Q: What sequence folds into this?
């Protein structure tokens, strides 16, 4: 039933609350003999880490990961890899307000309705802090996928999209928005600054491309590669939509315009286009795997909003203090991590049934 | 690893190829004591059945379901429910062409790349024929959910959307398109007829709403209700995108405009809006659960398209004979079924951890 | 949660009741490209089939298996293999007595306590008839294991054990008891005949050896090869005990007497003994995998026994008609099948994590 | 595929090696609202802890457990419970010998054969040290089972069995052997002391009884209560056999002698005997659940034994230093824990399908 476990062959389980002593993940099923050290994971955590510039929350967490098991003399042993990050920035603040009144758009009410109680400090288990462990687990998954390169980037913030014709992969790391379009990045500086100062928040669209995925990964009918990606991505905090390839755009095309013609190629067919996003019938085709996710604007903002208390009384809720003006930005490394985790899982799944190294 | 099994507590496994002797499903974990007969399942299959009007494929399949186990004296026993439909319309036709040349957009090449061989007759396992078993299993799931009513309908075909202000639920059954807007239905008659005659195909958007879902279903973090819906829906043949609530539209809203204010209500809070689509933090809020899926246009059309053969030679592929001009139409009951299956599963999952009947 | 599914990578799901229209299994995860026809399965079913001699029940079931999916042109396709056997010997008899009074030692009371109702005809789902599908699935599993040969045989009936020094594998097929000791087989003829005529029943011990299992199958800590074997074997109807290697005998040995010394060998170490039964730390060592299971005497016998009715009234229950005087005999092919299923599953599991073909 | 996860609804995942920085477990699916503190777990760990008397290893580990998540203000929240124990007694000793030569009966060779490398320090992942986390997880499981009381005890050491007629439950805690027979406990003092001084080791049989289990837990056919118990118990280090109820003894009884007659009772039937060990057809009957496990003598002893090195050279292996003369003793709390974990899991599973609190 796997409440807190994701994956089939390469599985990871996360635990921890925003303001508990630590958060962690256990990665199970990792092949043995891979070189792994904390330094292989830390850069990915650093990319996601808050407090790095004025466009993300000012919460400070060094997010230093420790490997507690599954690695011996620098190599994975095939036994579970336990990863742990201590929560160091647990400000002792007054949570009585948040404990009592439900923040609309946050999981406060849903958790209480389900469990009858909740750890309300900083959102507890529902905090996006948990995504740090997805990023850490994703770094392990990448080791399983030396043949694949994965890149996620933001294509739209607050409705302002990049110009596809200006796409430049080398720009992605040059700005705080993972933006592949230098012009758009400049516009977003203003846009996000304005939202931050206004205490508002913005949504975003993140695209992720995996190159080097061979044809044949994914398993019909209920372990389809695209279905597993959809589950993995929709489960990221604040995500409300997932597309593969052409996505919703495909609903507006005619069949003959959405086809991806094939021509004889050196290693399998050469495709003339990639409307399918590299997946047909739930199985990879050898083309780049392309997906897109929609991040809602975070529900933390200064404008007061009507709500109710635990006792059902009317209340006004207003976010105070630090928050991300656009969670999609920090969500970008998380999207990359989930792509890596799903692909690595399917690589091993394919091997189980069909062999090969 | 569950290649062909979906669900956690209420699970179903499907089997069968388009042109084999039969297709089937095994539904496991169903509560005992529910009234169930073939007549409870057949209407849902009839709704999905092809050949009913000129807007869907003319393939004729009576799709008569048989219950082979798990029911005794008209009631479920708690043991697995085996459902079987014989394939009766297996035209003996010449498949040598399809056997050899890969149809772009179909799973032909991907299956061969994965398995090294495939049952090419009518698409084999990758045929949308399998969705009949999802619909049958979904009919069982509905019995587990007497408190929930589920309705799916088409909101857009070939880029032509309904007018939301004309939405009329009673219209859905009055036209062959599951269209809730009588005007749009008329336009679609022309649109779909034209595409059919031209041997082209159209995409569609299907929306599905479940009312009566109580707050508290869904389980963070890797059994989130929205993530499971995304997996279930993205796995339907031809689906390329899934949205929950506001979906990609949320990426264009500000936080304060995307919030769903709560007010004191008789049974939990009354929500002033439902941007969230009834799910926050992966858990239902008591509001209607709303999702939307994008169906691509089927890859069967008359226009010849470049492709390759199994041996890597260049080829031209052109669909002959019967096909659906818009698979989204017949996909609509499948969307409903997957919604029912996911919700029923989560009802039982919630009960496992948190009790209650 | 997998109520009716067994296995991790190679999974099978069974369905069906003793007196329903049919029983069946879905085998999922089977590698593609294996030669498979009904004739590959039928001999194993025939070996288990009742009514073949006077030492097993006289119920007549041809048990002819049909393959409904997953095989194309004589080879497995990698998609689920649906196997079905029609129930042909459903005598229309009066079940009112069994419907009302619980048969001690049978699952009647337990099923009612759990589900509130049950299909009481012939034991319904709890009937050993289901084991036919394990045998059928096991025949598929054997195809995955060409390097392994598996043999189960009866070592003890009603407390009368074979003489290990008279063990002769060629004798196993020469008598109706799967007995490797010709002398013991003669004694058992008398023993079982007597029990049958007296309307009594006898227990048995079955041993199973798999040769050719390479070192390295099995996965610590909760997918151990011996733990999975224990689950698979303990779940067979009437089994009450499972041993690996020396089993309970090991509890009476000193460490130095239970050790299996290793010497340099051509392919890995040569072991001087096999107290471990080929499994250490949950992983195969390359030695033969050896297990032993205890079958209780069936709870069907002529002696009346005290019981209660569904309404809690006192009752006397007495088995009438056909039954097996020693279910361990017909259980022997089932033990073999479960060994094959567990080993094939672990072969694929090992491949997922550690590669290799 | 769950290499290191056990359970279906209440699941736990363990991680950690004998000489790594820590070991841990994540317990997932625990109902919310249960009172839980470290003090509820520690006593069970203390019972298993080594170094408490001269009959167990002198290795000193305080085994102080920390709860890192899933508990808020003293109550479980329904989110995963992370448990961690630091490894404090990691003597810096020379492992070069054990690194090179395989200890017969230990998992050294099997791990190398599977993974190609291993953490050889103290057995690494294959060390019984991992069982501390089963005990910790089991303490959580007990909270889910207030209606059930579980007791495990040793019935036999080195072939010397207790006298069943002298069984006295109050004696179990009065001696270092969990022995319910005061006379036997005295004999074992001598027996175990002798073995310890001789550097030998002894096997043991442990019995476990769970009282208060209601009828109806367990799910046919592949989530049978006895099959899950068999898996859970066979997976404990050094266990080679598992019996339910009469176990192998049932193979020597006639059907009429193995039956458990039922009589009208106040709450369901009163059973006249319990040969079945409280489980029929894989489902609990309301009687005490009884199982028995065989522990082999540990493979650590002073007598040199033939072996091979990693390079395939002949070697002599001889255990030096601290070890348990009878691992069955310290295994007793582990058996109890696994019983609790399986029962708690099945309580929740039953609730999922059949409702009830």
A:
């Amino acid at each position: 039933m796997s409440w807190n476990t994701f994956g089939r062959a390469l599985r990871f389980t996360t635990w921890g609350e925003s303001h508990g002593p630590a958060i962690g993940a256990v990665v199970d099923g990792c092949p043995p003999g891979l070189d792994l050290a904390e330094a292989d994971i830390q850069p990915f955590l650093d990319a996601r880490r808050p407090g790095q510039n004025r466009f993300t929350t000012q919460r400070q967490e060094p997010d230093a990961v420790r490997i507690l098991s599954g690695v011996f003399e620098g190599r994975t042993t095939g036994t579970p890899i336990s990863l742990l990050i201590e929560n160091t920035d647990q400000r002792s603040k007054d949570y009585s307000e948040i404990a009592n009144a439900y923040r609309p758009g946050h999981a406060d009410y849903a958790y209480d309705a389900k469990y009858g109680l909740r750890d309300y400090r900083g959102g507890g288990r529902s905090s996006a802090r948990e995504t740090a462990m997805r990023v850490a687990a994703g770094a392990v998954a990448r080791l399983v996928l030396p043949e694949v390169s994965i890149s996620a980037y933001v294509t739209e913030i607050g409705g302002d999209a990049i110009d596809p014709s200006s796409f430049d992969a080398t720009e992605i790391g040059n700005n705080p928005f993972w933006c592949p379009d230098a012009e758009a990045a400049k516009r977003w500086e203003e846009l996000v600054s304005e939202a931050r100062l206004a205490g508002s928040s913005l949504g975003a669209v993140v695209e992720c491309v995996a190159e080097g995925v061979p044809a044949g990964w994914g398993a019909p009918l209920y372990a389809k590669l695209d279905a597993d990606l959809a589950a993995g991505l929709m489960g990221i905090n604040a995500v409300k939509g997932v597309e593969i390839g052409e996505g919703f755009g495909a609903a507006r095309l005619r069949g003959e315009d959405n086809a991806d013609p094939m021509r004889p190629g050196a290693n399998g067919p050469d495709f003339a286009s990639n409307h399918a996003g590299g997946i047909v019938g739930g199985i990879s085709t050898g083309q780049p795997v392309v997906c897109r996710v929609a991040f809602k604007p975070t529900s933390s903002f200064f404008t007061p909003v009507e709500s109710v208390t635990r006792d059902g009384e009317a209340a006004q809720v207003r976010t105070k203090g630090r928050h991300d003006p656009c969670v999609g930005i920090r969500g970008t490394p998380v999207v990359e991590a989930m792509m890596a985790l799903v692909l690595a899982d399917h690589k091993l799944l394919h091997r189980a049934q069909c062999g090969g190294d």
About this structure: The longest strand of chain B covers residues 149-157. Chain B touches chain A through 117 residues (CB under 8 Å). Chain B has a mean pLDDT of 94. Helices of chain B lie at 38-48, 96-100, 108-115, 131-144, 182-197, 225-234, 255-258, 327-354.
